[in-house]
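$ ./design --mode recover --in tokens.txt
reading tokens...
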């Protein structure tokens, strides 16, 4: 082999090594992004629960809306409408993260189980769910939208 052939082989090896390193870096970056998204979504979910345990009046309201016959006051309706929208934002974010490859199908399924549990637990909130889902027609293609609808039928 002459010097030129040796230089070409070294150049090819350098390009291959660079591509392998780049692939490794991209994989690491994707893992970090998935972890960051998971952490942020968990924080958002925790914030919803913190509102309940930090405010006894909200906890008491949650107890009342477990009764399907309970009629909400105007103030309670507004409080719970904000909570419904917070849940919709969270669940939509999880689904978008899944669609973009930042969440696994397993993580999405866990969230969808949460959707069903929350909606079933608070039947007096069903009219709020119907109204809010109706206001956001663009969400009709989301899996959580269908799960909310199904949980209200059960």
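writing sequence...
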């Amino acid at each position: 082999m002459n010097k030129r052939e040796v230089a070409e082989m070294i150049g090819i090896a350098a390009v291959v090594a660079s591509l392998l390193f780049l692939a490794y870096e991209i994989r690491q970056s994707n893992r970090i992004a998935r972890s960051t998204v998971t952490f942020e979504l968990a924080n958002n979910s925790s914030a919803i629960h913190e509102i309940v345990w930090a405010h006894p009046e909200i906890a008491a309201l949650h107890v009342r809306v477990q009764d399907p016959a309970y009629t909400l006051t105007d103030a309670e309706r507004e409080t719970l409408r904000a909570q419904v929208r917070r849940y919709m934002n969270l669940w939509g974010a999880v689904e978008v993260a899944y669609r973009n490859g930042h969440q696994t199908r397993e993580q999405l399924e866990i969230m969808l189980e949460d959707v069903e549990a929350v909606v079933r637990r608070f039947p007096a909130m069903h009219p709020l769910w119907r109204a809010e889902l109706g206001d956001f027609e663009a969400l009709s293609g989301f899996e959580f939208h269908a799960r909310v609808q199904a949980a209200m039928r059960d």
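exit 0
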